[in-house]
Amino acid sequence: MEKLVACVHKRPSAVCRLICFPWAGGGTSQLAQWGEVFSDSVEVFCIRLPGRETRLEEPFAKDMTSTVNEVTSVLLKELKEKPFAFFGHGFGSYLSFAVARHLKEKYGLEPVHLFMSGGHAPNSAASLALKSTPISDGNDEVLAFLKTLGRTLQFPHDEDIRKQMVLAFREDIRVLQTFSFEKAKMDIPFSCDITCFRGSDDKIYDVQAWQELTSGDTSFYELPGGHFYLLEPSNENFLTKHITRCIENASL
User: Fold this and answer.
1) Which strands, in side-by-side order, build the sheet including 16-21?
2) Which of 210, 224, 11 minimizes the C-alpha distance to 115?
3) Lowest mean pLDDT among 16-20, 80-84, 166-170
4) Rounded to whole angstroms, how far apart are CA atoms 139 and 165?
5) Residues in domain Thioesterase (predicted)?
6) How much of the chain is in helix, strand and coil states, percent to nearest 5?
7) Model confidence band, residue 151 (pLDDT cutoffs 50, 70, 90)
8) CB atoms closer than 10 angstroms to residue 70
């Protein structure tokens, strides 16, 4: 549990857990800190994938299926014992969706709310195009691409750490490219509400297609900033307060 999940503020009496899934190449240092911000009604877990932080010596995940299976098997007991919601940014939005779909199909478990940030709906044409995008093996090319995503992402000065961050990003994108979802082959997968967020200076995401994936309500919010808009304190404040309201208004 401690290997996969970072929980900096344990709240055993919380009525709901928020499971956070970081962006490609990301660790738990930012989103895990949300545990200090939320009220006592919400306990925050942040997912830590292999190849980073305390799992630095582990080999990177090779595909979405094995990643989903690890997250599900480790968290299943906790997800069965009380309501939960998912928040995912970028790559994390796809992983959280894949985990949620697996939980619904295999165990009949569903989040009370899905919060998706900085990503296309998985049933959109734009999402499918990601699978065919070539991933460079050159660190400089990947680093240049990362820098285009927004000024709020901090790059370490240490070259070894920077190389490891680029490697983790590349490997996460390769996992994303193994993700397969075809809406036409299944019924509407969810009944929970879905909220989508994006930065105003980020690229346009096909978020409307999320409406096809739930019988619940869908809503969309644009906040100032680039791809990593959520790291700006004012935006983080909006996100945590809005997520809290949504969770507390859900039928728990």
Assistant:
1) 5-6, 42-47, 16-21, 84-89, 113-117, 193-199, 218-223
2) 210
3) 166-170
4) 10
5) 17-243
6) 40, 15, 40
7) very low
8) 17
Cα-based distances in Å from 134 to 25, 105, 119, 197, 227: 17, 31, 18, 26, 20
114 strand-pairing partners: 86, 194
The set of residues, in sequence order, having a beta carbon less than 8 Å from that of 87 and lying 6+ positions away, is 18, 19, 20, 21, 31, 96, 115, 117, 243
CATH of region 5-251: 3.40.50.1820
Strand partners, 86: 19, 114
CB 30 within 8 A of CB 107: no
155-207 tens-digit pLDDT: 666 777 778 888 898 899 889 989 988 765 557 789 999 999 999 998 877 77
Structure tokens at 120: 């296309």
Name, in order, each residue with C-beta under 8 angstroms of 161's C-beta and a sequence gap of 6 or more.
none
In a 3-state reduction of DSSP, which class is residue 106? helix
Which residues are within 8 A (CB) of 200 and not within 5 positions of it... i.e. 6 or more apart? 222, 223, 224, 225, 229
- Looking only at the bridges linking them, the beta strands covering 218-223 and 193-199 are parallel
